[in-house]
Structure formats: structure tokens, C-alpha cells
Automatic annotation (TrEMBL):
Family as reported in the entry's similarity comment: Belongs to the bacterial solute-binding protein 8 family.
GO biological process, one term: iron coordination entity transport
Ranges for domain Fe/B12 periplasmic-binding: 43-297
Source species of the chain: Deinococcus maricopensis (strain DSM 21211 / LMG 22137 / NRRL B-23946 / LB-34)
UniProt-listed InterPro entries: ABC_transptr_periplasmic_BD, Bact_iron-sidero_bind
Keywords: Signal, Transport
Chief place where the protein resides: other
Name recorded for this polypeptide: ABC-type transporter, periplasmic subunit
């Protein structure tokens, strides 16, 4: 297959060039330019967890998708991803597997796969967002334009904002500060505002501790830095096996026991897949489920 791939890509390039000069579908502007996409894509491949979340929310099951470091599809999507082929990891998607699935649309982002855009475009029309994380709602709208499902995206976002309003009524926002901590192998991250979770908390009008109001992604802290994670409520998650992170050492630290949220039994372990990996509307709604459960009066 590796020997055939350059030849097949060259043949596909001729088709892509023809599409550029005479589009019989719809044109979509995106981070890498303008692409002609089918009116109703049938064989979609997604190359990030955010795109996987979006297309499933929009009612489209992709034929192929990448995983995060080979760990499988996010657990909160269990049942929805049955029959979806694994086409490699976010870091290293397999062009051979993608080509074999004969896609008619590929969705990703410039941040993740801008360097592969030319190759992917030779396989199928490819639409890329600029980046990921804080722009997850814009990315949902872009994916919806590529799929011809903008009305569905608008409905999903309207429902999301309606849920936020209901949550705001139930939470004492003047007395509540939300701290977010994530354990990953080799790092403990104190999450700031410029990330997926940060946007949801901002949308909900929930305050963050003074140590977590930066317009950056995260700070890396040591056990001695645990006081910076204090808040009236603390949410924490673990990426991968807990034993591969410093979670056990942190949670057994005397500084952990002194945190207000811990002393008041307001420190909650949450699922990393929908709090950090999902980056889409389905994940956002699962986060709102957690916020309603733990914060609602």
C-alpha cells in the first residue's frame, strides 16, 4: 500500500484540480483557503476529537476518525462511534487508511494538520479550522457549513445557551469560585481561561480564583504550588492511568488537605474525556451535566 500511495495521490490530485475549476457542490472558506465540498457528504473523515464530536452532534457518523495517542475514542461517545474506523492518532494520522476509506470530505485544523493539507486535499476535499480549544463553537459552525447542516448547529448552540441561563439561576455566582486542575503524565496543570473548559465557565458567568484568570492555556505547578488551586469548588481530572501521573502524591499532600474545597468536600473528580479531550458541543453538554450536579442548589 505504501508503494501505491504516491500514485494514488497523484491520480486524486487530478480530480481535486478539476474540482477547483468547476465546483458542482458548495464552496467553503476555511483556514487553508476555499474548498469545493459535496452538497451532502456521505463519507466523512475527522482528524481530531473536536471534529468527531461536532459531526456526531450534527447527525453524521464519520467513516473514519483519529484517536488521542491511540487510547480509543472518547468514552462519552460510547455507542455513537460504533463502526467508525480508526485512522491513526491525532499526532500521526495514517494517509493509507484514510485513502482506503474513499472519503468525500476530511475535517481537521491548521494547528493539527496544516502540514498535511496538500496531501489530504489530494485524497478528498479538506476543510480546516484555524486552531482548537477556545474556538470550539466557531469550529462547530465551520464543520456544519462543510456538511450543509448549519441549521442543526444553530439549534445545538441555542440549546447550549439556554442551559447556561438555567445553570446561572441555580448557582450562587457571587460566592462560588471554580478551580480546575488536570493531571497528565509529567505535568500537573492549573487550567487558565484560554481553553475549552475556560470558555464554558466564562459562558456560564462563573468566577475563577485570582490565580486562574489569565488569558493563557494553563500553568504547570508543583505540589508546593497547590495553594494556587484553591477555590470554593475544585474540579480535577486525570489523563490516562492515574499511576502514570502525580495525582496520588498531590492528593496525599498536606497542602491538598488544607484547600478550602477539599475541607468543605467540594473537590470533585471529573471525566477527562469530556472535560478536556472532547472540545465539542456534546462534550460541553456533559460538562454542563457535571456543573448542574455539583453546583446546583
Amino acid at each position: 500500500m505504501k508503494r501505491l500511495l504516491p500514485l494514488l495521490l497523484t491520480a486524486a490530485l487530478g480530480t481535486a484540480a478539476a474540482q477547483d475549476t468547476s465546483c458542482t457542490g458548495r464552496t467553503v472558506k476555511h483556514a487553508m483557503g476555499t474548498t469545493c465540498v459535496p452538497n451532502s457528504p456521505k463519507r466523512v473523515i475527522v482528524l481530531d476529537t473536536g471534529e468527531l464530536d461536532s459531526v456526531l452532534a450534527l447527525g453524521v457518523k464519520p467513516v473514519g476518525a483519529v484517536t488521542a495517542l491511540g487510547s480509543g475514542f472518547p468514552t462519552y461517545l460510547k455507542g455513537r462511534t460504533d463502526g467508525v474506523a480508526d485512522v491513526g492518532t491525532i499526532q500521526q494520522p495514517s494517509l493509507e487508511r484514510i485513502l482506503a476509506l474513499k472519503p468525500d470530505l476530511i475535517l481537521s485544523s491548521k494547528l493539527r494538520h496544516g502540514n498535511l493539507y496538500a496531501q489530504l486535499s489530494r485524497i478528498a476535499p479538506t476543510v480546516m479550522a484555524e486552531t482548537v480549544g477556545v474556538v470550539w463553537k466557531d469550529n462547530l459552525k465551520l464543520d456544519a457549513r462543510a456538511l450543509g447542516r448549519e441549521a442543526q448547529a444553530n439549534k445545538l448552540l441555542s440549546t447550549y445557551y439556554a442551559r447556561l441561563k438555567k445553570l446561572q439561576v441555580r448557582v450562587d455566582r457571587k460566592r462560588t469560585t471554580i478551580s480546575v486542575l488536570r493531571f497528565v503524565p509529567g505535568q500537573v496543570r492549573l487550567m487558565q481561561r484560554a481553553n475549552f473548559i475556560g470558555t464554558i465557565l466564562d459562558d456560564a458567568g462563573l468566577l475563577r480564583p485570582a490565580t486562574q484568570r489569565k488569558d493563557t492555556f494553563s500553568d504547570v505547578i508543583s505540589a508546593e504550588g497547590l495553594p494556587a488551586a484553591d477555590g470554593s469548588v475544585l474540579f480535577y481530572s486525570t489523563y490516562g492511568p492515574a499511576d502514570a501521573t502525580d495525582q496520588r502524591a498531590f492528593l496525599s499532600s498536606p497542602l491538598w488537605a488544607r484547600l478550602n474545597a477539599v475541607r468543605n468536600k467540594r473537590a470533585f473528580a471529573v471525566n477527562d474525556d469530556h472535560w478536556f479531550l472532547g472540545i465539542g458541543i456534546l462534550a460541553a453538554n456533559r460538562v454542563l451535566d457535571d456543573l448542574e450536579q455539583y453546583l446546583g442548589n
